[in-house]
Amino acid sequence: MNRDQYIAIIKARLGGQLLDIELTGEQIGELVDIAFMELNPYIDTPYFKTLPANSCIDLSSENVRAILYVVRANAGSINSTVDSSAMLFSPLTYTTNQYSTLNGYTGTTSLLKGYTTSLIYQQIRNTTQQDLDYTWDGREQKLYLYQQIPTSQMITVVYNKNLVNVEEIQDDYWINYLIRLSLAYTKETLGRIRSKYKMTSAPYELDGDTLLSEAQSELTELRQFLQDNDNLFMPID
């Protein structure tokens, strides 16, 4: 949904087709922008990006808020048959073909002996260091990556991002909350306008106080719900 669609929905919810609203479309749009800024930190939609695996990856174009995790997109081939620690993440074809000479074993029992020795090496390695490790520099928007052999040529980064505008919200769940939050902000503004002056001798009364009360109640409820259900976590690199 674009900004104008949010404005149209809010006008309709406030009876804009039948009643005069003291706010212009652009003024309502500004309130939508304010609601968007408040909602943005809670939006935890995951984004996936597969890219070449380098030791330093620039992600400044993605507006990353937090890296959730990094995974290998493909497994590289083993370049050395004597490096048994490289066997853990290799394709099965490489493993089968190269166990015959692994760790110097030869003969009819080489596969079992080589496999057993490799398991020991892998267990030691996995208890001392990670296969794929990364550090995220949020200030510079750079991802520093370390891989064990065999390295992958491509990796997939899963992350949350800081959205730039309302058009980037794609999930119906968050669209609904932006409408509700924007509507509450608009009610609050209209309530302040309509309750500025009291017309004691008029044959009718404005609903300023009612709008203010509704807005405050809705804002409190929405903010509490968002805080209680905030699932966004910041991993410790």
Describe the structure.
The chain has six helices and six strands. A three-stranded antiparallel sheet has the order 1-6-3, with no helix packed on it. β4 and β5 form a beta hairpin. It is elongated. The C terminus is likely disordered. α2 packs across α5 and α5 runs antiparallel to α6. The protein is α+β, with helices and mostly antiparallel strands and 237 residues long.
SSE layout and pairing:
Blueprint lengths: L2 H11 L11 H15 L7 E6 L3 E3 L5 E9 L19 H7 L11 H19 L3 E6 L4 E6 L6 E8 L10 H23 L13 H21 L9
Antiparallel strand pairs: 1-6, 2-5, 3-6, 4-5
Helix pairs in contact: 1-2, 1-5, 2-5, 5-6
Provide keyphrases for this structure.
237 residues; alpha+beta; 41% helix
Concise summary:
By secondary structure, this protein is α+β, with helices and mostly antiparallel strands. The protein is 41% helix and 16% strand. The strands form two sheets. The chain has a three-stranded antiparallel β-sheet, with no helix packed on it.
